[in-house]
Every structure is written in C-alpha cells, then in structure tokens.
From TrEMBL:
The lineage of its organism: Bacteria, Bacillati, Actinomycetota, Actinomycetes, Micrococcales. Residues 293-406 form the ATP-dependent DNA ligase family profile domain. It comes from Microbacterium maritypicum. Belongs to the ATP-dependent DNA ligase family. The gene is lig. The active site is at residue 211. This is Probable DNA ligase. Its cofactor is Mg(2+). Coiled coil: none annotated. It catalyses: ATP + (deoxyribonucleotide)n-3'-hydroxyl + 5'-phospho-(deoxyribonucleotide)m = (deoxyribonucleotide)n+m + AMP + diphosphate.
Length: 507
C-alpha cells in the first residue's frame, strides 16, 4: 500500500464529524491493505506505531532541514522498516543514526506525507480514528460481527493483530482469541457521575472504592515470572521491582490483577501523580518506592474470571491480595458511599469509583457498570493565544494558550499573566467558529502556527487538578483541562491567579 493512500484516508476521517463516514473511509482503506501491512497501518492511524518507543522527539524532527519529494513514492512497508530501524537504534552515536534515518525518510516523503508521519511518530495525530471507530471499521471491512471483533481486541490488547486476524481469518479465529496470562488486555473503563448517590442510582448495589491519583497497572504472574503493564499496555516490569516482589509473594501460581500504583510521602499521603509516573520512565530508580493497590482479578490458577460478576471476583481478590486490596465497601446505601468519598478526599485521593457487583469485567469498554466520582475544579483564565487546528479543525483557531494572573509579578511582570497550559478539549464547532472570527481583533502578533492575543478574553476552564511543571514559568501546569465557556461578564483583572493554582500543589 502506498503511504499516500493512508494519508488520504486519514484526511477524510479528520475532515468529517460523522462516525459512519469515518468508519466507511477506514473500512475501505483496511480492505485494500496487504495482510502484512495491517498492523503498521493500524499503528500509524492510532499515532501509536507498532514498534513502541521510537526515540524520536520534536527537537529531532524540527532540526531537520530537508527538501521533501515532489510526488509520492513511499510505501507503508518502507515506512514500517524505517520505524523498525529507529526503534532498534541505541548506544553511542544513536542520535546521529536516528537523525540520518529520519532525514532519509523525510526526503522521500512529500510534504503532506511527512506532516502525517511526524504527528504519528509523536503521538499527536488527531483524526478521530479512535479505537472504537477502528474496531467498527475492522468489522465492516472483514464482514464479521462487531461484538466478536471487539472482544478479540479486548482480550488480545492489540488492535493491529486483531485487524489482521479479522481480515485474513474467519469468526472462529476471532473467537479463539482468549485471555492468556502474560498477554495484557485492555483495561475496563469508568463513566462519570457528579456524586456517589447519583452513581449508585446507575449501578445499584456496588463496591465503592477509593480512586487514587496514581497510575493504572495490570499485573500478570505465571509462577515466578511476573509482568507489569501500564494503562496503554506498555511493559514496565523492569522498572518496578518492588511490585514484582509483592506479586511473587501472593498465594497463587497464575494470576492477572488490575490495580493502581503510586508513591507515598513520609506521612502516608499520596505524592503527586507525576512523581509516580517518573518511575515509569527511568531504567533504574528505586529512591521513590511504589505501592500497589489491586481492585480486580481477571484470572486465578487456570480459571478465567472476566465473565464472572464482580462479587465473585472480589471474593477471589480478597483471598489472593489481602492487605494489597484497594480500600472500599460493598453497599447500596447512599450515605455510606458519600462518607467513603469524603474519607478518600480527606486522605488526599481523587474520589471514588462505584462498581456494580453483578457486572462482568468488560475489557476496553466504558459502560455504566463502573462510575467514577471526583470533584471538578474550575478556574477563570486568560487566553494568551491560539494555534491553528489540523484535520477536521483545519482553518479554525483551536488549541488555546491559557494564562493565570500574576498580580505581584512573582513570575514575571507585575499584573502580568503566566502561561499554565494549553487545551482544545471542550471546544464545540460553534466556539471554534466564534474564536476564529473574534481572536484577530485581539491579536498582538502571530507566527505560522499561532495567533497571540492581548490578555483581554476570559475563559472558564475545568481541570482535574494541577501538577508541577518546569515547562511554564509559574512551575505549574493544568491537568486534563477542558473549556466550559467564555466569561464575557468578567474582565482579565478578575481572572484566577497563579498563586491560587500553585496552592493546589501537594508537597
């Protein structure tokens, strides 16, 4: 398959808001792909190359000064080979080798192809080709029931391999994909509710459990062999030896556990999320000890449990993990659920997750059986700039640069504004159109990618919290920021301060 075919399909997907149109475009693409190319095609569409970490960053890509090809000649197979080379390059001189590989690839790609590849390699390709859409496209291209395709993907944890099986095999081949110790599965996800009481109305009798500000982990054990995987199914076993030792000591030969991990401070309170995540990126780092909490078990000593109700799984979990179990209660009492939520927040955690006790483990799905409840913070911030959108947002001013007020000039000019993050989340088509028309009237200057604004517009932003960040002058960045709406009733002088945001930092 030519790379230009993939780029063209991605452009079609990004240019429409119709889920059906996205599925049609992707199904057509997949039906034309050679079986050997399917995993590579899927990885590029998801901006998650099948090779995993490539050792490539914005600095390396932006440093290239390459004349692109005038006409398309690259195949998907040739791109995949180049990514193989990037992923396997290491040691002394590897930076130079990677630069050479990137340069050769960039010179053989057209400008449009290179734009696509750069964003795919950096994980910043936003076309709307999400996993759910791709699963439906696979089912359509292969003419198999979507439910069978979806379950195979959930249990294999590999969309590319699922697509290959679906497009080259029959329904029996898909149904043969099962739970296997040592092969991570897609994690079950939670919906949201405003209060524990509202969540209980959805779930009925439920396990009400702490929601930690930690990192999701899935742990597989076969005898003395232990594997620890992240939410995205990356293998971090060698980076978390303390968790490996804990799991090796459990009373089981074969087990698959779902849980979270974080580090604790001297008082037993949770350390900031980014400190936990720092362990995942370090080859050797044992100064910061991680503590696991397990909240589900999917397999135990030859018995698959994913189709069993949560009540059965919790009984096995209690038997196997003991004190390593996530704190929680089983109840249908709203007052009890509200109290546990207050306890979790008082202990420094995010909130609670409420799980129906009669529900199976729906790997990779976000249904109504699990419902998370955590406070949402809102702040009034000033728009400092906006980046031109890509894909479906092309031609619109989209990604917002957000600033907090600095009245004392602690981090810059007195009565100035300090950047604390970016977001395009929550922007409707109506808001995108309004921004694009409104922002030039507030423009101070611009670059090719960004229109910078005078600090005159206030926007209400919802966040899950803040974290330390050396990237911004105030040393703080927003977590999961999304737009609630513009506050035309407020002036920039009424915006929240950088000091208010910094007061939310723990430790």
């Amino acid at each position: 398959m030519m790379l230009t075919e993939l780029v063209s399909a991605a452009d079609r997907v990004g240019a429409t808001s119709s889920r059906l149109a996205k599925i049609d475009a992707l199904a057509e693409l997949l039906s034309r792909a050679d079986p050997t190319e399917i995993p590579a095609v899927m990885g590029l569409l998801l901006a998650a190359p099948r090779q995993g970490r490539l050792g490539v960053g914005w600095r390396g890509i932006s440093a290239l000064d390459i004349a692109h090809a005038d006409s398309p000649t690259l195949t998907v197979g040739e791109v995949d080979q180049a990514l193989d080379a990037l992923a396997t390059t290491s040691g002394t001189g590897s930076a130079s080798v990677r630069s050479g590989i990137l340069g050769d690839l960039a010179s053989r790609a057209t400008s449009a192809e290179w734009d696509f590849l750069a964003r795919a390699m950096l994980g910043e390709l936003r076309t709307g080709a999400l996993s759910g859409v791709l699963l439906d496209a696979i089912a359509r291209a292969a003419d198999h029931p979507a439910a069978i395709v979806r379950r195979a993907a959930m249990l294999s944890g590999d969309l590319g391999e699922t697509a290959r099986i679906a497009l080259t095999g029959d329904e029996g081949d898909l149904e043969a994909v099962g739970l296997r110790v040592g092969r991570p599965v897609l994690p079950m996800l939670a919906a949201t509710a405003a209060t524990p009481s509202a969540a209980l109305e959805v779930t009925g009798r439920a396990s009400v459990e702490y929601k930690l500000d930690g990192a999701r982990i899935q742990v597989h054990r076969h005898g003395d062999e232990v594997g620890v995987y992240t939410r995205s199914l990356a293998d971090i076993t060698h980076r978390v030896p303390e968790i490996v030792e804990i799991v090796r000591a459990l009373p089981a030969h074969d087990v698959i556990l779902d849980g979270e991990t974080l580090s604790l401070d001297e008082d037993g309170g949770p350390r900031p999320f980014q400190e936990t995540m720092s362990r995942f990126g370090a080859d050797v780092s044992r100064e910061l000890v991680l503590r696991p909490w397990f909240f589900d078990v999917l397999h135990i000593d030859g018995r698959d449990l994913i189709d069993e109700p949560l009540s059965v799984r919790l009984a096995e979990l209690e038997r196997v993990v003991g004190d390593w179990r996530m704190p929680g209660i089983v109840t249908d009492d709203a007052d009890a659920a509200e109290q546990l939520s207050r306890d979790a927040l008082a202990a420094g955690h995010e909130g609670v997750v409420i799980k129906a006790v009669d529900a199976p483990y729906a790997a990779g799905r976000r249904g109504k059986s699990w419902v998370k409840v955590k406070p949402v913070l809102t702040f009034d911030l000033v728009v400092l700039g906006a980046e031109w959108g890509s894909g479906r947002r092309r031609g619109w001013l989209s990604n917002l640069h957000l600033g907090a007020r600095d009245p004392s000039g602690e981090f810059g000019d007195a009565d100035g504004y300090v950047m604390v993050g970016k977001t395009f989340k929550g922007l409707t088509d109506e808001l995108l159109r309004w921004q694009t028309a409104e922002f030039p009237g507030h423009e101070s200057h611009r670059t090719a990618s960004t229109v910078f604004l005078r600090p005159e517009l206030v926007v209400e932003i919802a966040v899950d919290g803040v974290q330390r960040s050396p990237r911004y002058p105030g040393g703080v960045a927003l977590r999961f920021a999304r737009v609630k709406g513009y506050r035309q009733d407020k002036s920039p002088s009424e915006a929240d301060t950088i000091q208010t945001l910094r007061s939310l930092l723990r430790g």
